[in-house]
Amino acid sequence: MRIGFLGAGRIGAFHAEALLATPGVSDLLIADTDTARATELADRIGSRAAESVDAVFAAGVDAVVIATATASHADLIVRAALAGLPAYCEKPIALDLAGTVRALREVETAGTLLQMGFQRRFDAGYRTAREALRDGRLGRLHTIRALTSDPAPPPAAYLPLSGGLFRDCLVHDFDAVRWLTGREVVEVFATGTSGGAAFFREAGDVDTAAALLTLDDGTLVTATATRYNGAGYDVRMELAGERDQLVVGLDARTPFTSAEPGGPAAPAHPWGGFLERFAPAYRAELAAFVEAAGGAAPNPCSGEEALHALLAAEACELSRAEHRPVRIAEFGERIAELG
């Protein structure tokens, strides 16, 4: 399979190298708005660079991987659909509901495959937790506690392009909750603070956030995130049932220190970032795309799945702004109008 690869930044470089090592991939044709960066990446991993995105689409590739800046995702998804090409895209589809729905309608009309990048679905711990929930080992699930904590803020220039902490960061937790439980979010109540660097307030964003989600079976979910976790990169999910509790992300590199006498000390090498923590999951996710694009497996994460996660994030932003509970159903009429 010849793959057109769009985007040669940090996550793009990781994905490109992983794809070249994936069975079934014969070649990558890499394009980036910075042609020198695309050439450097292609030379380093033993692939080829294209002079432009147009050149990639004109080259007769079999599939497209989109790892470009967020603002370009929707247009590239539409372009792949119109070209009849299966596509993998890093989340999000777009930073707004209108752009997301527009792209999804084009994919639906074209009948092409769109796999969205929610790598936690391929993480060993999350997959074990899903099996435990599905086979009833925990009993009735009543509480989920999820957290995502970055060790340090991103560059100031990134924030206006990110969509905010709920859409950029906690959207992964919202997708994981839906995927693990098989339930839908029906209501959220969210808040956030920005006591750190001034550029969060200037971007209208927050550096720390918390949300309470109610699922359609009554399960309660707390989801928190921060850009300031100096101990390291921390992603965990606790699932509490009537019979037992299970924790995802608790290992020898989880960045915390016990306050209990004789409790575990801080890890010598805590997780430093998402690429390190989820490297095996990213590789598995891309391998699944190659299989799905070739017709050998179903799509593991469709664009519609990404829309559901985005709706939870949108509801959280509205709740934060208006200081009230927000039901997901409030967005139904808006989606119908956009469609």
TrEMBL record:
Residues 126-245 form the GFO/IDH/MocA-like oxidoreductase domain. Residues 1-118 form the Gfo/Idh/MocA-like oxidoreductase N-terminal domain. Signal peptide: none annotated. Coiled coil: none annotated. InterPro entries: Gfo/Idh/MocA-like_OxRdtase_N, GFO_IDH_MocA-like_dom, NAD(P)-bd_dom_sf. Keywords: Oxidoreductase. Belongs to the Gfo/Idh/MocA family. This is Gfo/Idh/MocA family oxidoreductase.
